[in-house]
């Protein structure tokens, strides 16, 4: 029996899902084990094998592929635990990374922080100036060589960087996205001197105009590539030694996977890998449920994540920002705040209750875990409120200490605010819901959509406990909590259900529309590049689809909109059709009449995304139907739970999700216990179990 595995390594827990493609899906959840995260991965696989009743070797030998999402890249960048990198730039242009295009003080900052001009600061530079060296060469805007590459100078700066002990070298030369020949020769010369040096070229990692963003992307790729390689390759070897015959695939920010032996070369594309898994899982579930517009919400141990699916496809962004530095890598647009189950609650100097962004993480974890944590978290508050039972998580394998939770809340929140422990706990719970609700509203409205046109999918360890609260004032039609066999391992399910996705792009700034022969030439080149990339994946695909797009903007504007390009053959009418799509999209976001074609339109970057299906069905199976709506057969106990500060503690029925059947209806207040999470159904909310075992919440 062949299997597909999804492994999601989060900041607190490692989630895993296995599907046999015939309707059987099992999941597992184990604590993440930093810094040796591969230990947690192997434990999760062992638990999957136990759920299936087979040995690890048997499971791995029958596994078609493992899709892996990792926080390794993003954590390394955020925490500064990266490789020492040297930069080789065109003479006179090394300071682009330090000048930061005059936007370094504001990139990635909130509106409030941007307005606070007195506290604006540039971030620490990605690399010190003594490791940013220059070589003589010059290519112009058309890709023509004006000044040949000084190869002796390249050898000299390479020896200097090697002597400084760098682990990787980033190469970013002027206009290299139009002609990468000089960069490729620089790499050859580096490897003559240091054959094992990790080298990354901007013309391969970020062939996009704008020197600062291209340089920062190339440097950050070099910073995380060696670390990702030292994590993935030994993990792959260990899996193969234990019996894995299929490939280890790594999720990328744009929602698809790449083989583990190729991932370190394009390490920057994995920065948002764990953020993408939940959105991809949401797409697969939406296909089964017939939902076109979905807001995916993932409340993990560290963060709250929200993504949008519109007309069946995820909303994408051309790049992202980390530590105030831009990354030129297409990504599923995911909005995030540090407000997960392990978010630390505190009282600031003004006497205000704060939740996050700091987290207790896996070690030491919330106070109630009993692992040495003394600061209160969202999880501690939920335990005090009765939302979580003292039996704990992971089917009782992770018992919780109510006394430690109460003490942490008393010391750090209740006494500073003059509240009882219970009052402080409900305040923490309500702040979590309010923060998440605010983020959702901004994410949907700022993208030009009406929340009433969407359903919400809520998952993650803490998502089901809070979703009814943070969606209450959003105006959505319903909230779906994926339960069944995936429960809080939904992001891992998304990984297992993902496709291989590669993208290629080139910048060619010009007025638009362009002649259809130009369109044909650009996209033919990009599609040929993608075909070579797919051939290198060493994976069998059952179907390959291509999505073309071009980034357009009105003249004198500084941002572009990615605009879909028709799949049909290019004709004289194609450019006008693309322009009409751009104008409709622009007005949908900015308002009717906002467009102004008379200003002129410019094309900046052309892009093709290849989605290659792995041919392995990972759909959620249907569950048995109930005889009627009465869920009493699943009732296991009543416990005192506080879901509302006005009502206080109320005797609340608690149901075992494993006994729920399709058609059962729960009237709030109610709790649904799942080994890896808990679902809260407040008063005024009704929960209905659908045919896939999901709990669908609706407001009365």
The main pleated sheet reads as: 9 strands, mixed
Binned strand content: 25-35%
Strand runs, count: 35
Structural class: alpha+beta
Helix content: 25-40%
Mean pLDDT over the residues: 88
- Gross morphology is globular
- Total of helices: 17
- Runs with pLDDT <50, length 5+? none
Radius of gyration: 26 Å
Q: What is the terminal-to-terminal distance?
A: 45 Å
What can you see in these coordinates?
The chain is of the alpha+beta class. Helix content is 31%, strand content 27%. It has 17 helices and 35 strands. The strands form nine sheets. Strands 13, 14, 15, 20, 23, 24, 31, 34 and 35 form a nine-stranded mixed beta sheet that branches. A six-stranded mixed beta sheet has the order 3-2-1-4-11-12, sandwiched between helices. The protein has a four-stranded parallel beta sheet with strand order 6-5-9-10, sandwiched between helices. Helix 3 packs across helix 9 (211-241), helix 6 packs across helix 7 (181-193) and helix 12 packs across helix 13 (421-445). The longest helix has 31 residues, at 211-241. The mean pLDDT is 88. Residues 214-501 form the Hydantoinase A/oxoprolinase domain.
């Amino acid at each position: 029996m062949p299997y597909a595995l999804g492994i999601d390594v989060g900041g607190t827990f490692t989630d895993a899902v296995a599907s046999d493609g015939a309707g059987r899906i099992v999941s597992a959840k184990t604590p993440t084990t930093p810094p040796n995260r591969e230990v947690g991965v192997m434990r999760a696989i062992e638990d999957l094998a136990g759920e299936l009743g087979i040995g690890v070797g048997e499971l791995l030998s029958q596994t078609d592929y493992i899709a892996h999402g990792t926080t390794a890249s993003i954590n390394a960048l955020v925490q500064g635990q990266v490789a020492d990198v040297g930069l080789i730039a065109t003479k006179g242009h090394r300071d682009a990374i330090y000048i930061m295009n005059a936007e370094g003080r504001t990139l990635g900052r909130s509106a409030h922080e941007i307005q606070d001009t007195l506290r604006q600061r540039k971030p620490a530079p990605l690399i010190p100036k003594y490791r940013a060296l220059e070589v003589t060469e010059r290519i112009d805007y058309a890709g023509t060589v004006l000044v040949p590459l000084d190869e002796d100078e390249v050898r000299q700066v390479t020896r200097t960087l090697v002597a400084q002990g760098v682990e990787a070298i980033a190469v970013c030369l002027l206009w290299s996205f139009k002609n990468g020949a000089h960069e490729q020769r620089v790499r050859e010369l580096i490897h003559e001197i240091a054959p094992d040096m990790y080298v990354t070229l901007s013309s391969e990692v970020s062939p996009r105009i704008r020197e600062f963003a291209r340089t920062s992307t190339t440097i950050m790729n070099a910073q995380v590539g060696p670390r990702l390689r030292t994590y993935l390759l030994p993990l792959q070897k260990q899996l193969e030694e234990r019996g894995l015959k299929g490939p280890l695939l790594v999720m990328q920010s744009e929602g698809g996977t790449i083989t583990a032996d190729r991932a370190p070369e394009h390490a920057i594309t994995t920065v948002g890998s764990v953020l993408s898994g939940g959105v991809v899982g949401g797409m697969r579930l939406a296909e089964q449920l017939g939902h076109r517009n979905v807001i995916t919400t993932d409340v993990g141990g560290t963060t709250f994540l929200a993504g949008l699916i519109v007309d069946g496809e995820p909303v994408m962004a051309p790049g992202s920002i980390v530590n105030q530095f831009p990354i030129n890598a297409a990504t599923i647009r995911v909005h995030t705040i540090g407000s997960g189950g392990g978010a630390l609650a505190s009282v600031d100097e003004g006497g205000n209750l704060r939740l996050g962004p700091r987290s207790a993480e896996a070690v030491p974890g919330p106070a109630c875990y009993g692992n040495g944590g003394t600061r209160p978290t969202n999880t501690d508050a939920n335990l005090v409120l009765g939302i979580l039972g003292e039996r704990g998580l992971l089917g009782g394998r992770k018992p919780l200490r109510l006394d430690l939770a109460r003490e942490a809340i008393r010391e750090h929140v209740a006494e500073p605010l003059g509240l009882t422990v219970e009052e402080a706990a409900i305040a923490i719970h309500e702040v979590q819901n309010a923060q998440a609700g605010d983020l959702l509203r901004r994410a949907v409205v700022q993208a030009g959509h009406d929340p009433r046109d969407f359903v919400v999918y809520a998952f993650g360890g803490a998502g089901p406990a809070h979703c009814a609260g943070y969606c209450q004032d959003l105006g959505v039609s319903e909230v779906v909590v994926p339960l069944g066999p995936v429960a809080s391992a939904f992001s891992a399910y998304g990984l297992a259900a993902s496709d291989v996705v590669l993208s290629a792009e080139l910048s060619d700034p010009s007025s638009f529309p362009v002649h259809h022969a130009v369109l044909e030439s650009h996209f033919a080149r990009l599609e040929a590049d993608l075909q070579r990339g797919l051939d290198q994946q060493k994976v069998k695909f059952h179907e390959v689809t291509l999505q073309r797009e071009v980034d357009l903007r009105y003249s004198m504007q500084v941002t572009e909109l990615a605009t879909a390009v028709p799949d049909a053959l290019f004709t004289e009418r194609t450019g006008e059709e693309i322009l009409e799509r751009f104008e409709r999209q622009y007005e949908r976001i900015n308002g009717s009449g906002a467009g102004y074609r008379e200003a002129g339109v410019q094309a900046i970057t052309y892009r093709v995304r290849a989605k290659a299906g792995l041919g392995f069905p990972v759909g959620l199976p249907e569950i048995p139907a109930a005889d009627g709506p009465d869920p009493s057969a699943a009732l296991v106990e009543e416990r005192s739970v506080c879901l509302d500060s006005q009502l206080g503690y109320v005797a609340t029925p608690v149901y075992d999700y494993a006994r729920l059947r399709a058609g059962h209806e729960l009237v709030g207040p109610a709790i649904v216990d799942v080994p890896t999470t808990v679902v809260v159904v407040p008063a005024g909310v009704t929960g209905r179990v659908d045919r896939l075992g999901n709990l669908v919440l609706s407001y009365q």
